Structure formats: C-alpha cells, structure tokens
Amino acid sequence: MNSTFRKSLILVLGLTALSGCNEQATGEAVVRTEIGGSETGSGSEQGNVASEQRAAVETPCRPVIFENEPFIHCVAVPARHHISTALQSSDGTPYRGLAQYAASRSSDAPPVAFAVNGGMYDDAGDPIGYYVENSERLKELNRNAGEGNFHMLPNGVFYGSDGKWEIRTSDDFFSSVSDRPEFGTQSGPMLVINGKLHPDIATDGTSKAIRNAVGIDTRGRAHFVISNRAVSFGKMARLYRDELDVPNALYLDGNVSALWNPAADRLDTGAAIGPIIVVEKR
C-alpha cells in the first residue's frame, strides 16, 4: 500500500452502510445487514452461519473514504486466500443471494473471508458472459455487441488458477488464454485498462448506483471494492487507478451489489443476484 493510498483512504470506524441509490434495479433493494444487530432481515440460520465464520476469520475488509464517498475495500492475497465462483447448489438450485449461499455451506468447508456478487446475469440468474466454476465452463465468452453496462466495450474477464488471478479485456482473453482456468466470470465495462480509464467513462456521470468491482495489482492481489452510497462509474474507476494503483479493474455490477463479510457480521440481502465470487481463507 503506497503513501498516497494511506493518506487518501481514511479509515472510517463504525461506518454505517447505506442502501439508497438513484437508479433502481428490478426487485428489492439490497439491504446492508448486520447480523445480531438492530437491522437483520436474514433470519437466525444465516446469522448462526455468519457468526461461526466470524470466529474463524480475521476480516480482510476495511471501510475507506475516497473523494468524500464511503467504500468497503477487501483484499485477497494469493498466499492467504483461495478464490472460486458459485452459482447454484449441488441439486441445481440457483443461490440467487449471499444469504442462501452462506446457509448452504457445510460446517467442514474452509472459512469464508468474504464473498461478493460476481458478474452480470439474465432474469433466471444465469451468467450472460463467460463463466467457469470448478474448472467447468458453464458459459462461453460473450463478444457480442449490445446495450447496457455489460456491452460498454471493452468489457472483461476476471479469472484465475492456482492462486494466480488476472483481469483481461474480453478480446485479450479470447486471443491470449487457451487453458481453462479454475474460475472465471465475465462482466463489464472495464474500469481501468493497462493503467488508463475506460475511454467512455465520464468524469462523474449522472448515472449513480451502489456499485462493486475488482482489480488486480502488480503483486497479484485482488482488490474488491463496494460503495456504501450511490456513486458514478468515474469515481469508482479513479479509486482503482489513482489510489489502489491497479493496472486493470473490472466493474462487477450496480444496484444489486452485495457483500458478505463474516468477521464484521455483514450479510447483504435484497435483489436477486447471479454468479458469486467467494474468497476463502487457506
């Protein structure tokens, strides 16, 4: 973490997560849940799961402020964490939420450091782009033109195997990656591409939402960020370029963005989601 980052990202203790946003997605708004506190909404079963996970894991997530907006910044380190994707249970039932996924984990599974929604999806919750889980490709790379954030080209793929995690534009992934990774998820748009902001992202556009994204730094660490208030693409992209200093960052989603941080008793619920990115402690 460089000195500029330490000066600019001020740790905020006791930060209250907010759920309002200016643009609404279909379904319920995401609820920032504190298990065992005055605002739960996820049921005792999920609360018990989160409490057990908290006892086993030291949180890698910290509240930060960037350009006067509150974010949560979670870091996955290859030597300490394992990343995977999750979409549905063994019987084929889609999770569609972090609470459902949390409740499904067995007691002997590795402790979860944190988990987030991990890419865009259709009405049934199926990925609309490249998706790999446990080295099995469930959806091919989507290089089609279209509308919406996913098709704000270039979009990209977050993927990895054996503790080596990468983000590439979809075209770069198509031309450069031949071996199937252990996990992979396609989303869009790219926020930062080889150290530069996406050319079509405005400085601070009128579209604002609760957003989340992932970026990989030069040391191979994965930086996950979720906003606690509605923010623009430009602000989140600058956070990655100017403060986290990552060469490539990928937008994951907005409005439905959610975080499970067991050590902090945070388990967001609300609008149905699709793919989930899970970071476990090794």
Automatic annotation (TrEMBL):
<feature type="compositionally biased region" description="Low complexity">
    <location>
        <begin position="34"/>
        <end position="47"/>
    </location>
</feature>
<feature type="domain" description="Phosphodiester glycosidase">
    <location>
        <begin position="113"/>
        <end position="258"/>
    </location>
</feature>
<protein>
    <recommendedName>
        <fullName>Phosphodiester glycosidase domain-containing protein</fullName>
    </recommendedName>
</protein>
<dbReference type="InterPro" id="IPR018711">
    <property type="entry name" value="NAGPA"/>
</dbReference>
<dbReference type="Pfam" id="PF09992">
    <property type="entry name" value="NAGPA"/>
</dbReference>
<feature type="region of interest" description="Disordered">
    <location>
        <begin position="34"/>
        <end position="54"/>
    </location>
</feature>
